[in-house]
Automatic annotation (TrEMBL):
Residues 7-222 form the CobQ/CobB/MinD/ParA nucleotide binding domain. One of its GO terms (molecular function) is ATP binding. It comes from the Bacteria. One of its GO terms (biological process) is negative regulation of cell division. The keyword ATP-binding applies. Keywords: ATP-binding, Nucleotide-binding. One of its GO terms (cellular component) is cytosol. This is ATP-binding protein. Coiled coil: none annotated.
Length: 326
């Protein structure tokens, strides 16, 4: 199950991603955590100290390795150089699974021990000016998108991405790669305006978008969110002393998280799991092809000097039954 946390800067994306990851790990579920946010804070939010977080390998620096592994023996993708962030898998491509060891995890993922279990953490690495543009060849989130487009995840397996709702994710199609997107919003006009914009993009692509209200204090905040986002409001989280203690460098045990917030996390998982029924691998594959053609035409063909439309394998549908040829 692929889950994105998006929202305005400072709304609590990283905090809620980290809490949800802790909740899943505590429940014994396999988790791959991905930090694709401009402000790379997921490692520290999962309890890493500065030195440990700084030592994490950046996916953005390992794009050639990721591309070479994923293209495998796919005859339509002649080199890693011609593989762009939207290049879809086809016959001969290697696929990724949540529970396995593979060279991509070896190079990019590090284990993080949490109460109840370890998760794999992957980080895009710090963003530069050129990563925030729309037509970016070396985009950091491109590595995440390639992994998601080659990932065959099943029920009870989780990939949680702490992400920015930036224009590049709309241009590349990254925003369509999730079973569910949690939009973290504080009860403010700015928080809600990010929701409206996201909803607008999401409309034509069957994106499941739910709002998680954060830093909600009392009835007036709740009423405000309810009025502004209606039924898309899934749950709200209040100020958490547990989170504050973590920020002070005194991480409490996960069991000590406030009851109301633990309930909220359970509700998030229920919402995630319920989307399994809505899965449609055929549509998922079709959307990656759609965005690949769009990116090929707008910058990819010119950038690589080849016709990237030829990379599409018309007979290929990604899915849990997909055959991996290694
Ligand atoms: N429910 C909460 N209770 C207490 N503190 C919170 C809560 N949610 C977020 N915070 C605090 O608010 C600050 C911003 O949260 P966080 O870093 O998660 O936001 P973000 O959306 O990831 O921000 P950025 O855009 O900078 O990545 C942090 O200091 C965090 O500890
Ligand atoms: Mg953040």
């Amino acid at each position: 199950m692929k889950i994105a946390f998006v929202g305005k800067g400072g709304s609590g994306k990283t905090t809620l991603s980290a809490l949800f990851i802790r909740h899943l790990a505590h429940a014994g579920a396999p988790v791959v955590a991905v930090d694709a946010d401009i402000n790379q804070h997921l490692g520290p939010a999962l309890g890493m100290n500065e030195a440990e977080a700084a030592a994490l390998p950046a996916m953005g620096d390992r794009l050639p390795l990721i591309k070479d592994y994923l293209r495998g023996s796919n005859p339509r993708i002649v080199s890693a150089e011609t593989m762009i962030k939207t290049t879809p898998p086809g016959e001969g491509s290697r696929l990724l699974r949540v529970r396995e060891d593979n060279p991509v995890y070896d190079a990019c993922a590090r284990p993080v021990e949490l109460d109840g279990g370890a998760v794999r953490l992957m980080v895009t690495g710090p963003f530069t000016e050129s990563d925030v543009g729309v037509a970016c060849y070396h985009s950091k989130t491109g590595a995440v998108e390639l992994c998601l487009n080659h990932l065959v995840d099943g029920h009870g397996e989780y990939v949680v991405v702490d992400m920015t709702a930036g224009s590049d994710s709309f241009a590349s199609g990254l925003f369509t790669r999730f079973d569910i997107t949690f939009l973290v919003a504080e009860p403010t006009r700015k928080g809600v305006s990010v929701y409206r914009q996201y909803k607008e993009y999401a409309r034509d692509f069957g994106v499941v978008l739910k709002v998680v209200g954060n830093k909600v204090q009392g009835q007036d905040d709740l009423d405000f969110l309810r009025t502004e986002v209606g039924d898309d409001l899934l749950v709200t989280v209040g100020h958490s002393d547990w989170v504050r203690a973590l920020e002070k460098g005194r991480p409490p045990r996960f069991e000590l998280l406030e009851d109301a917030n633990r309930r909220a996390l359970r509700l998030l998982q229920t919402a995630v799991d319920a989307t399994y029924e809505l899965r449609n691998w055929e549509r998922y594959t079709r959307q990656m092809v759609h965005f690949h053609l769009k990116n090929a035409a707008s910058w990819g063909n010119a950038r690589t000097g080849v016709d990237l439309a030829a990379q599409i394998d018309p007979g290929f549908v990604l899915g849990e039954g997909a055959v991996v040829r290694v």
